[in-house]
Structure of Na+/solute symporter:
Amino acid sequence: MTDLHTRAAGASVQPPLSQAVGYVIVVVVGIVIALGMSRSSMMVITKVLKKTTGEDNEKTEMFMTANRTVRTGLTASAVISSWLWTTAILGSSFVGYDYGVAGPFWFAAGCSPMIVFFALIGISCKRKIPDAHTSLEVVRIRYGRIAHIVFMILCLINNIFACANMLLGASAVISALTGMHIIAATFLLPVGVTVYTFVGGIKATFLTDYFHTAIILIIACYFTIKAFTFEEVGSIGNLFDLVQAAAKRHPVSGNHDGTYLTMTSKGAILFAILHICSNFGLVIMDTSYFIKAFSAAPSSVVPGYTIGGVAYFAVPWALGTISSSLALGLENNPIFPTYPRRMTSTEVSNGLVLPYAAMAIAGKGGAAAVLLITFMAVTSTLSAQVIAVSSILSFDVYREYINKAATDKDIIRASHFGVIFFAAFSAGFSTMLHYVGIDLGWTLYMLGVVTCPGIFPMAFTILWRRQSKAAAILAPILGMATGLGVWLGTAKHFYGAVSVSTTGEILPCVYGTVASAFSPILYSVVITLIRPQNYDWAEFRKEKLGLDRVDSETTVTSSGQVEHGPRNTSSLDPRELKRWGRIAAFWSVATFLGHWVIWPLPMYGAKYVFGKGFFSAWVVVGIIWLWITMLVAIFYPIVDGGVQQILQVVRALRGRGGGLDEAFVPSVKEGSRDGEVVKVGDEKI
């Protein structure tokens, strides 16, 4: 085998699939999924669910929060889905290609702790303001309209850049694999998302997220098998030898001994700091996370987010490690798409490490599989972003500033407008970024500069009663200014100019992100000390936020029984919620210490270089964890209430009148609570 050329521009790789395949996946598959949530389909499904379970999408509480009854299994699956970004699937591979085994690990460690931490935020919201729909409602009630507008802008910036990050990576991969024009992909990807989110609301995003997540994880698990049954690899030990040989051909600057097989990587640790800060911003300032927390049943928030967060760790870790190792080990082999040259910096930054690795081991089938999971990932996560923005436009703009007397129909109409508007806007914004030379790598690195300023002021709004109104308003604004100034200043200092290329380098992005994330703590504390607030959490409950609840709500309880009648969220047992809060705090600390301190830092400090046995164990544990994640995401929602609800629907449809009318349900215990058994006909459910 010949040595590879350097990462200079080389001959372009011909798309392995035709444009027709690209349009079929992006347009036809998108339309098929949308038709599953089409008006006619949803009318049938809605009618059945309304009669048998009381779920009515014509009610705002059902459309926006699924009537706050989503169980642990579906919550965990939705949490995993929420982080199955194209960025995670493609980005973890390219940081593995750049930094070695440390890259995918730190990518995963930069996601799981804050997902679990959000369980603490979510249960705190359940305790203090159980009828809220968005995080911005919490800000408005506590601090008033000026703070409300400030945080609304911060949340919208967060959603805009998050969508751009997803669309840039997905469009580049679809274009590379099929030859489809990148702008066509950018504008067509949101179409199916818009249709099913428009019709189905948050419950549609839960259900389609479940479907998409199942496909993504099945294909990811397939790659973990295919990688080691491929003749040129054969085993984990052989993959180790290939990666070790790659380090000798082109050692990694900043890694101990120049090897890819060490956690002692300067570039990877800088990325880790940047990534965990950025992701805290993406979680705390993303209203879709609050919506899913508000949608979950009170007993499901903490276990759902904890299980989902821990399970998710395996996706970027295992898939990123395997795919980047394959790319590094096989790129001097004629089977690799770029042979005889290395991948260019542009190809790596566009997220093509995973596609090229898949093409090397599985040919056109691998390319088609990556195309499918890219499409599923971007549409799944884009749907959450779209409904998050539509919730802001409907509840926080329309209901608050335009029509205070808005009815269910008015708010849903505003939500529909928000879905269409944001889908079109995000596609246009991503197109603008593409034409000025910005790609997945640039947005991945700089994302935290604009998403982090509101982290601590928002968390303090929910967790710290003393933060003052002035601090809540000024701290994120000053933090944003500080972060942008540091980011641009360090780009000029280190590289002599402020340009797209210099501002996308890791050092300026690390400095800017850290400044954006942590300077608001100082600003908030100092401003608060001047005139601290002593907020009474009971004030949250004085404002009526919930609209009319579903008239005939039916919920499967934790014991597998069914309760009917409207649930009064304000009467939830405060002692039980406080207990869940303690559990959430414990798991938040434990997850951070495990993923960020106890596991990786001793290896970093010891300058440990992986041997063949340790690398084999590392990969095997990652694969097992990934398969467990697949089982959790696919089967846990079915076991946890799914079967009972299906049986409930079937039984109701077979009863007199086909629904839960008076003839079918002769009596319902008045004021029934969790754990009580309700008679349906002559049966106890």
The first helix runs from residue 19 to 36.
